[in-house]
Amino acid sequence: MEYPITPAVRFLREKKIEFVPHLYDYVEKGGAKESARQLGVEVHAVVKTLVLETNEKKPLVVLMHGDREVSTKSLARHLGVKSVEPATPEKASKLTGYLVGGTSPFGTRTKMPVYAERTIFGLERIWINGGKRGFLVEIDPDALRLLQAAEVEVGIEK
């Protein structure tokens, strides 16, 4: 199966991280639920890559279970800032080099602090964006440690 060679794929290869590529039909606004359905995996194991920024306009990445949302209040408290909100799609694309819906935490254009929901590390395998819409990579969650991902507990049920 032909899969795209994205900056994320190059990063994983360079770091010798084993991954299984999974292509699916990208659906606008389908999100983690849609990719999980098409790939036949638990939506909880699909990890979303979210680009947010603090009230001081400092960008950051949050990795979250596909069936949870980020409590921006808890995250702001954790970071010791006034507020945190999602970056605009334009800003997210500029920072990462990826289109929204195809954002991977690996191989981003700009190095940003990464925060991962603690329970992600307890999963056996995760499916995370490979840098293109309709393309997830299946990896061991420990690979996220390469991003110096700080563990946080900011997930809330949707």
Outline:
The chain has 158 residues and is an alpha/beta fold. It contains four helices and ten strands, in the order αβαβββαβαβββββ.
Helix count equals 4
The appropriate CATH architecture is Alpha-Beta Complex
Residue share in helix: 10-25%
Going by helix content, strand content and strand pairing, the class is alpha/beta
Broad CATH class:
Alpha Beta
- What is the chain-wise order of helices and strands? HEHEEEHEHEEEEE
Low-confidence stretches: none
Globally, the shape reads: globular
Q: Which oligomeric state applies? A: single chain
**Number of DSSP strand runs:** 10
What report would you give on this structure?
With 158 residues, the protein is α/β, with parallel strands linked by helices. It has one domain (7-157): YbaK protein (Alpha-Beta Complex). 21% of the residues lie in helices and 30% in strands. The protein contains four helices and ten strands. The chain has helices at residues 7-14, 31-39, 72-79, 89-96; strands at 20-23, 46-54, 59-65, 68-70, 84-86, 114-117, 126-132, 135-139, 150-152, 155-157. The strands form two sheets. Strands 1, 2, 3, 5, 6, 7, 8 and 9 form an eight-stranded mixed β-sheet that branches. It has a two-stranded antiparallel ribbon with strand order 4-10. β7 (126-132) and β8 (135-139) form a beta hairpin. The termini are far apart.
Strand and helix layout:
Layout: H1 7-14, E1 20-23, H2 31-39, E2 46-54, E3 59-65, E4 68-70, H3 72-79, E5 84-86, H4 89-96, E6 114-117, E7 126-132, E8 135-139, E9 150-152, E10 155-157
Parallel strand pairs: 2-7, 3-6, 6-9
Antiparallel strand pairs: 1-8, 2-3, 2-5, 4-10, 7-8
